[in-house]
Here is the input.
Amino acid sequence: MKTRLFVLGAFMLLQFTALDAQSSIVSNAEALGMSSERLEKITSKWETYVENKQLSGAVIYVARKGTPVYFEAIGQSDIAKKRPMEKDAIFRIASQSKAIVSLGVMMLQEDGLLRINDPLGKYIEEFNETTVAEVQEDGSYIVVPAKRKMTIRDLLTHTSGLGYGYGPAADQWKAADMQGWYFAHREEPILETVKRMASLPMDRHPGSTFWYGYSTDVLGALIEVVSGQSLDQFLRARVLDPLEMDDTQFYLEKDQVKRLATVYKHDPEGIKRSPDEGTMESQGAYAKGPRMSFSGGAGLTSTAQNYANFLQLFLDKGVFKGKRLVSRKTVELMTSVHIPNELYGWPSGTGFGLGFSVCFDVGARGTLGSEGEFGWGGAYHSTYWVDPKEELVVVYLTQLIPAGDIDDHPTLRNLIYQAITD
Here is the structure.
């Protein structure tokens, strides 16, 4: 009887604690110029996505001036197991890894161990002489020397010419087993993989255009060379631990596996569970993989709160909970436009910085937000952004690939900005 009463009391305590936390978030919203009532439109809309079998579930985190004003877990993390989505669910964040690794490179510049305008070959000699596959009129390609050396800054801005192995010389990249962004299954250190990349023809000449691909994986290997640590050790010591990102890692610990959200894919009849392995869109080897390849471009897993901590560092100009991790000037450099729209080629009014896309003209872009806003997303349909003018941090995590025609990303943006009251 005593045991039953203890369990009931513990359950009620947890319930009251959760209610108090939610009540606090509602109060925060009103105090910080956000309408909690209008923010609830997000919950209603996302419940509709789940009911319509467009999403399994999601975690959405919105903070203003460093304080959460909306934080909800909606739907399920595993439909077959009827496991509800929880706020501490762990997600494969894919390309959201890129900004974290980019920060690591900038920290090494602050340490005086590299300069981002240095040629990459200064640190990884295999990149001293690279080639490019140039397409001919008949559709074939020829391999020519690169017009100049690739720099670290080229990698940070995705103007290195490195793709994901599907460019003009796709046959050579395929033969080298070097296609796609998924690395968790590889039994090879990332530095060795990157060295093999250097011998293959790139898709574009360095500096010629924005070209999305393996650039940040190369940066991860660069960090290993310059720091003398593996990428996971370096990030843990310099970024993840200082930012209290305890649930951010390349491979999960045993006690974390049950919190990993399931990957789903769009289907005309509703979403379906992705296969366990064999494709980039699978459940992946994040729990049972060989734990040898640390992919700086797409390999991390994380939670909404963890990633919000990372973004808050940028909103607070390099300081987290009173401790400075990077300088204000480094943050300014990373979130400035380095690649103008004509080279970037994505939505008008948007360019690219060092690890982030950056909005420089809201009118040209045509969506709610602010000039100076920066962000990115991941292959599993996650997204995030920071709006310094409105002092907003937004993290949206879900696991859906391919996503089909769901309109959740623009809808989330609209529902957040319509809730601003000041």
Observations:
- Residues 100-234 form a domain with the Beta-lactamase fold (CATH 3.40.710.10).
- The first helix runs from residue 2 to 31.
- DSSP finds 13 helices and 16 strands in the chain.
